[in-house]
Amino acid sequence: MSRRNLSLLLCVLAASLLCRMRGGTSPQSGYVAQAYTTINDWSLEPPSRRALINGAMRGMVAVLNEQGDAHSQYIGPRRAQPFMDEMRQEFGGIGVRIRMTGDPARLLLVGIPEPGSPAALAGVKPNDHVVQIDTHPTAGLGMQEVIELMRGPVGEPIVLRVLHDGETEPVDLPMVRDTISVASVFGDRRLSDGSWQFRLDEDPRVAHVRLTNFGSKTVSELTATLEGLTTLGVEALVLDVRENPGGALDAAIGVSDLFLPEGAPIVETRGRRGVVEESYEASGDGPYLAMPVVVLVNGDSASASEIVAACLQDDGRAMVGGQRSYGKGTVQRLFPLESGTSYLKLTTSSYWRPSGVNIHRLSDAPEADPWGVSPDPELAVSMTDDEHLDFLRWRERRDLIVFDADTGEVLSTPQIEHRDAEGQAVEVDPGYEDAALLRAVEYLQSQLDAGA
After folding, report:
1. Roughly how many angstroms between the first and final C-alpha of the chain, as a whole number?
2. In terms of CATH, what superfamily is 90-181?
3. Rounded Cα distance, 442 and 452, in Å
4. Using alpha carbons only, what angle is made at residue 253 by residues 248 and 256, rounded to the nearest 5 degrees?
5. Cβ atoms of 281 and 263 closer than 8 Å
6. Residue 101 above 90 pLDDT?
7. pLDDT per residue over 377-412, tens digit each?
8. Which GO BP terms apply (predicted)?
9. Where is pLDDT greater, at 10 or 187?
10. What is the pLDDT of residues 29-43, one digit of tens each?
11. What torsion do the CA atoms of 421, 427, 428, 431 make, to the nearest 10 degrees?
């Protein structure tokens, strides 16, 4: 059987499986069941049931992708748990950040472990080189393999053999996996007590708050952060969703709700043939109606990030700075398969900003089309691809530097290497200036000074 015919057969098989899940029958499902039996009985090298189902689902989703839906996907059993962990913002683990660095690659624990985590209690230090995980040497392992070895059920033991920075003999650090919460709200720099510094040194009236994704805890995290900052005298906010690929729709609505008056439109979703499914409005007067806000976006800000930026921009509640966003104006729903051990992530609707524009960027959309969220002219900062890479390297390095919580002094820097496309080492400029952030801060300062 040719590859093309086999792919077609797998697509029909997947359709049959979905028909059965819905309780329906069709002649095609009978044909596919017969073909499935035929493959099992007669194929020279019969594939496993798992391989058939995975291939069928991937084939069917590929049809959607070919029609222009780039965001629907099949999430198989191996990826399902990590995917749901990310959405729930928690998993069973030890509370460390890891990087592969050097040639040959070494596994480093970078930054400080999460306060109170198994790793912190066991004595893990910044820049520890992990030599072995349980009985598995780390040499030659890929990042996905490392993650699968480190994560596991809460309560299960794990032993890391690590070489502390500056020492010559590795030590074994036994620990027990615990529930690790994954934060989605970051500040400007990480402090030695595990907290983030949000207020800017040059003007403590302004806070820099970064949202890295929109998960189940994002709204509560942001609410707690803003409550703490206002008690410290913060009067203005840079809400940074650069590099944020999105996440849960309800999280984007909840974040927007904090800054809007009651009844202000947030987003509208439409299904097939443009039929309105839901219209979301602010549930009540948000607690930060008077706070000046700039939302920073860039070309990797997508989906839920764009909902927040577009909503606050259209409602006249915030200015938008940075670069034009990605342009993902569709909503995906998760359909559990196989008793929740795998999922179909399916595009079911589009979302529309308060101005009535759908910001989704089609594959052939010209620059003149209204896709994405464009920054306000006075806060727009152009950036080349090379400049974007410089920003990413600088931001990653800054996030892994540990600053003293009392003095602000640098306590440790990450021993990671950055390389360009040709594999050449690239130095990170310690004096790098984040132009988009600087412009946003200048604007907010002008607003605060004008109201003084």
Report:
1. 77
2. PDZ domain (2.30.42.10)
3. 15
4. 130
5. yes
6. no
7. 999 999 999 999 999 999 999 999 999 999 989 999
8. proteolysis; signal transduction
9. 187
10. 677 678 778 877 888
11. -140
Judged on CB neighbours under 10 Å (0-12, 13-18, 19+), 427 is exposed
CATH architecture of 185-451: Alpha-Beta Complex (3.90)
Distance of CA 344 to the CA centre of its chain: 19
Residue 365, both tokens = 């959309």
Q: Provide the edge-to-edge strand list for the sheet that holds 410-412.
A: 196-197, 189-191, 402-403, 410-412
Strands 199-200 and 410-412 turn out to be unpaired
The widest CA-to-CA distance across the chain, in whole angstroms, is 82
Q: What percent of the chain stands above pLDDT 90? A: 71
| Cβ contacts of 393 within 8 Å, gap of 6 or more | 418, 426, 428
pTM: 0.88
CA distance 53 to 15: 11
pLDDT at 414 over 60: yes
Higher pLDDT, 306 or 416: 306
d(CA 214, CA 185): 9
Is the CB of residue 294 less than 8 Å from the CB of residue 313? no
Residue positions annotated with a catalytic role? 303, 314, 328
**Contact (CB, 8 A) for 179 and 116:** no
For the chain, what are the domain ranges?
3-67, 90-181, 185-451
Q: How far is CA 332 from the centre of its chain?
A: 15
Mean per-residue pLDDT, 230-254: 97
